[in-house]
Write a structure and sequence with these properties.
Layout lengths: L12 E6 L2 E6 L34 E10 L8 E3 L2 E8 L1 E6 L5 E5 L3 E4 L7 E4 L6 E10 L6 E3 L7 H12 L2
Antiparallel strand pairs: 1-2, 3-10, 4-11, 5-8, 5-10, 6-7, 6-9
C-alpha cells in the first residue's frame, strides 16, 4: 500500500533545480508562511580552477561540505586526502606546499583548487597573510573514512626558506 502525503495545494510555486539556476513550477506544497519562499539558495562562494579532474567512485561515498578557516600564521600541517576534495578560497591568500618537490602555489579569493588523493600526495597549506583564509570545501570520501585527511610525516621541505622565497618573489 502506498501512503500519500497530506499536502495543501496553496497556489504557490516551488523551485525545480535546472542546471545552474532555478525555474519555478506550480506544485502541491505544505503550508508555509507567506513571507518564506518555498525554496531558496545562496551562493556562499565561487572560484575558478584550470586543474583537470575526474571524480571516480566505486561504491558508496560520504559527501562533506565544510567551511574551513586558517588563521594568520597557521598551517594545516602535512597531510594527504583520502578522497576527492575541491576547495574555493573565499577570502585571504592560501599558500599550498607540495611535499613531493617542495613547490609553492598561492591561491587568492575567487580561486579554486583540486586536491590529489592518496599517501603519495602529501602537502600543507599555510596562511602567511594578516587576515584569516576562509575556504569552502567539498570532500567526497569513502564511507568508512573517519576524516577527509590523514596526517603525514614532514617530507623534508624547508618551510621558512620556501615561504620567504615566495613572499619576496610576490613582492617584485
Amino acid at each position: 500500500m502506498v501512503k500519500k502525503s497530506k499536502l495543501a495545494v496553496a497556489g504557490t510555486v516551488a523551485a525545480v533545480a535546472l542546471g545552474a539556476g532555478f525555474a519555478t513550477q506550480p506544485v502541491a506544497q505544505a503550508d508555509v508562511a507567506a513571507d518564506v519562499p518555498p525554496v531558496s539558495a545562496v551562493t556562499l562562494s565561487q572560484g575558478v580552477t584550470s586543474a583537470p579532474f575526474k571524480i571516480k567512485a566505486n561504491g558508496n561515498r560520504k559527501v562533506l561540505y565544510r567551511k574551513a578557516v586558517v588563521q594568520p600564521g597557521a598551517s594545516t600541517g602535512w597531510h594527504y586526502h583520502v578522497g576527492e576534495e575541491i576547495a574555493v578560497i573565499n577570502s585571504g591568500t592560501f599558500t599550498r606546499i607540495d611535499g613531493s618537490d617542495c613547490s609553492v602555489e598561492e591561491y587568492g579569493a575567487g580561486e579554486s583548487l583540486v586536491e590529489p588523493v592518496g599517501p603519495t600526495t602529501v602537502h600543507m597549506g599555510i596562511n602567511k597573510g594578516s587576515v584569516p583564509v576562509e575556504l569552502y570545501v567539498v570532500d567526497i570520501i569513502p564511507t568508512g573514512a573517519t576524516a577527509p585527511t590523514t596526517l603525514a610525516p614532514d617530507p623534508g621541505c624547508d618551510i621558512d626558506a620556501i615561504t620567504s622565497k615566495s613572499t619576496s618573489a610576490g613582492a617584485k
